[in-house]
């Protein structure tokens, strides 16, 4: 790539399907409006559950071929989102899905949870050197909900920002995925209508493993025009997201508002102009000088 658009967005996700569930509408929105969207996926998702009975033998404990199948699902999802620049961190299969926290799969020698931080971050810096993104999206320090690969994706992404800052090529803004508590409170009842409810028995948002106070949200991206693209991308991940998923149940209640609006906190960089009672940005590039000079300064971030 020798010529790239003025706006360049980098996303770092742990497994195939995370990009569609958490940031699908944002990705589709920026791709449709001419930004260069680069998706980096850290594993191929070998340890995922399989919700297609005919594919049950692909499971990690059986043929151990699920990861290869999910590469195809991810390609279909990216096509639905209009994203043409997708990479696996270190190449497909370099890092293995670690499985949920505390499982024996965490100890696999190729498990992403066991990855050398600087080595993994180095692969991401190489992508930053090529693409020079002004904005990066990843998870918070808890990986949004505590999955070890999400936590490691956060660590790798933030270490890569440190290393890139030394070279003067770090993104000017770094966002973490988030969900406002007000949105969770409005949608909690919809969980009970799903046969695939991961939060059965939870009656209060205080008991959920995620949720950000509204004043701490920095950006609300209204990409409702892309809600159909997000849903198509999610349906491409059929092994992981059954038709009865709570995600579709909530979408049935809230429609484009649920599928098309995504929220972020600002981890590094200067917040741009916003609106509403909390000044939420409606553009992740808000306030940036897009001629390439606006980079996050090392001293201001306390980086090495």
Task: Name the features.
1D-myo-inositol 2-acetamido-2-deoxy-alpha-D-glucopyranoside deacetylase; 304 residues; 12% strand; Rossmann fold
Portion of residues in beta strands equals 5-15%
Main sheet: strands, sense, barrel: 7 strands, mixed
Provide the CATH topology.
Rossmann fold
Strand order of the largest sheet: 3-2-1-4-5-7-6
The ordered H/E elements are: EHEHEHEHEHEHHHEH
Apparent shape: globular
- Structure annotation, total helices: 9
CATH class equals Alpha Beta
Mean pLDDT: 90
Provide the CATH superfamily: LmbE-like
Q: How far apart are the first and last residues' alpha carbons, in Å?
A: 30 Å
SS-derived structural category: alpha/beta
Residue share in helix: 25-40%
**Count of discrete structural domains:** 1
By DSSP, the count of extended strands is 7
Q: Could you write a compact summary of the structure shown?
A:
The chain is built from 9 helices and 7 strands. With 304 residues, it is an alpha/beta fold.
Task: Outline the fold blueprint.
Blueprint: E1 8-13, H1 18-32, E2 36-41, H2 66-81, E3 85-88, H3 117-131, E4 135-138, H4 148-167, E5 173-178, H5 181-191, E6 219-222, H6 227-236, H7 246-254, H8 256-260, E7 261-268, H9 298-301
Parallel strand pairs: 1-2, 1-4, 2-3, 4-5
Antiparallel strand pairs: 5-7, 6-7
Helix pairs in contact: 1-2, 1-6, 2-6, 3-4
């Amino acid at each position: 790539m020798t010529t790239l658009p003025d706006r360049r967005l980098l996303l770092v996700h742990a497994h195939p399907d995370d990009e569609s569930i958490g940031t699908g509408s944002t990705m589709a929105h920026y791709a449709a409006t001419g930004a260069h969207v680069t998706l980096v996926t850290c594993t191929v998702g070998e340890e995922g559950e399989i919700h297609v009975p005919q594919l049950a033998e692909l499971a990690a404990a059986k043929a151990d071929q699920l990861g290869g199948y999910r590469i195809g699902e991810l390609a279909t999802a990216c096509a639905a989102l209009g994203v043409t620049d997708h990479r696996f961190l270190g190449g497909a299969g370099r890092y293995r899905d670690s499985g949920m926290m505390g499982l024996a799969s965490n100890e696999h020698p190729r498990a992403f949870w066991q990855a050398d931080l600087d080595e993994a971050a180095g692969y991401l810096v190489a992508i930053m050197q090529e693409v020079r993104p002004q904005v990066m999206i990843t998870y918070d320090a808890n990986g949004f909900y505590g999955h070890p690969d999400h936590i490691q994706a956060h660590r790798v992404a933030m270490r890569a920002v440190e290393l890139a800052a030394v070279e003067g090529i770090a993104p000017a803004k770094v966002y973490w995925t988030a969900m406002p508590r007000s949105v969770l409170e409005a949608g909690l009842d919809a969980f009970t209508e799903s046969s695939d409810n991961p939060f059965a028995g939870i009656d209060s948002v205080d008991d959920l493993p995620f949720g950000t106070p509204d004043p701490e949200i920095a950006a609300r991206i209204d990409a409702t025009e892309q809600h159909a693209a997000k849903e198509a991308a999610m349906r491409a991940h059929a092994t992981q997201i059954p038709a009865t998923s709570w995600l579709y149940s909530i979408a049935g209640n809230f429609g484009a508002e649920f599928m098309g609006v995504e929220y972020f906190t600002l981890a590094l960089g200067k917040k741009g102009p916003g609106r509403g009672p909390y000044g939420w940005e409606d553009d992740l590039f808000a306030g940036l000088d897009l001629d390439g000079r606006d980079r996050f300064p090392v001293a201001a971030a306390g980086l090495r």
